[in-house]
Amino acid sequence: MSNLLYQKIGLAVSRMALDMMCRAEGERIPSISEYQEKLQVSRGTVQNSLSYLKEEGAIALVSRGHMGTFIESLDYRKLQECSLNRGILGSMPLPYAASYQGLATALYRVLSCFEINLVYTRGSESRLQLVAEGVYQFTACSRYAARKAIQNHANIEIAVDLGPGTYLSRHVLLLRDPNARGIEEGMRVAYDRTSLDQRDITTMLTTGIRGVRFVELRAHQTVNAIRSGQIDAGVWNADEIIESGYQGLHTISLDDVVYVEDFSTAVLVIRKGEEALLQLLSRYVVPVQVRGIQEQVRAGELAPDY
Questions:
Q1: 149: how many CB neighbours lie within 10 A of its CB?
Q2: Residue 28 — left, alpha, or beta (φ > 0 → left; ψ -120 to 50 → alpha)?
Q3: Phi, psi of 133 (to 5 degrees)
């Protein structure tokens, strides 16, 4: 392949490999003429590309006469080696909660036939920016964060919507005063500018309330900051509070304040126009399978593996 990369056929082989990565065994492939139009190459280049992938053991095809040509077998790792993209690099939040551990485990499982690596990092805005720049092929974030970035004209698109509860169950408001019913004048409120979801929910809750003082800290420090008296209120992930067994915390539901589904739904976001990757993720990251694996991890029936 290294010599072919310097020739026109090298690019055609790469694009053909990417196309095959989005297919499954038993599937009928397009005709030579259809591939000519799709790849914008000659008939001979299409035939040579298919021959190269067969010789490398990446694909095995069988002709069924007038019915067309079908895929007998695929070696996804060899297809990756034959494409210009050597591996799939994704990103997602730090897996501090079972929902994120389950999501990471699920992604590795449903994409196990590919070479995939996940990077764990805070801050959906920075992860989305790195996807737009092509550093990561995809990132997992809330549907709210993805839609806001798209509204701000980021060069990204949603490839897979995994459904409510796949990012987290809900956010809650933590209050130091057990008698408080919400954020009040003069309160010190946690503010994490790196977390788009926490930051925007906090802004929604404090708009119009006089004398609120924002205390900048990482969202995951909210519980300790409440207990130590550093802050009076803060928005945090209900899942992490339940799983960590925190006792005696005064929490307020935010279900009537924010649109829960947009914040609780995990989506996979890619750079706009990455058609092969869009097809690949759409085919293999099946929401019902991901949710099933997540639930097993949450219930302790499956050990996290990421």
A1: 22
A2: beta
A3: -85, -5
Q: What angle do CA 28, 31, 37 make, to 5 degrees?
A: 125
- The 3-state DSSP class for residue 59 equals strand
Predicted local distance difference test score (pLDDT) of residue 70: 96
CA distance to 33, 117, 244, per residue, from 182 (Å): 65, 41, 23
Distance spanning both ends of the chain, measured CA to CA: 31
Asked if the model's pLDDT at residue 164 lies above 60, the reply is yes
Structure tokens at 214: 């924002």
CA angle (37 as vertex; 36, 42 as ends), nearest 5: 30
Q: If you average pLDDT over residues 247-251, what whole number do you get?
A: 85
Q: What is the pLDDT of residue 257?
A: 73
Instruction: Identify whether the C-beta of residue 90 lies closer than 8 Å to the C-beta of residue 119.
Output: yes
Residue-level pLDDT at 248: 80
R_g of the chain, CA atoms, integer Å:
24
- Asked if pLDDT for residue 6 goes beyond 50, the answer is no
Give the position of tokens 């990369």: 5
List the 266-271 sheet strands across, edge first: 116-120, 88-92, 138-142, 266-271, 156-161
pLDDT of 7 > 70? The answer is: no
In the structure, what pLDDT confidence band is assigned to residue 86 with cuts at 50, 70 and 90?
low
> Which residue in this structure is represented by tokens 């990012």?
167
Q: Give the residue from 242, 277, 258, 246 showing the smallest Cα distance to 157.
A: 277
Nearest to 213 by CA among 231, 240, 200, 238: 231
77, 82, 84, 86 alpha-carbon torsion, rounded to 10°: 20
| CA–CA distance, 97 with 285 (Å, rounded to integer) | 21
Strands (E), 64-191: 69-74, 88-92, 116-120, 138-142, 156-161, 171-175, 188-191
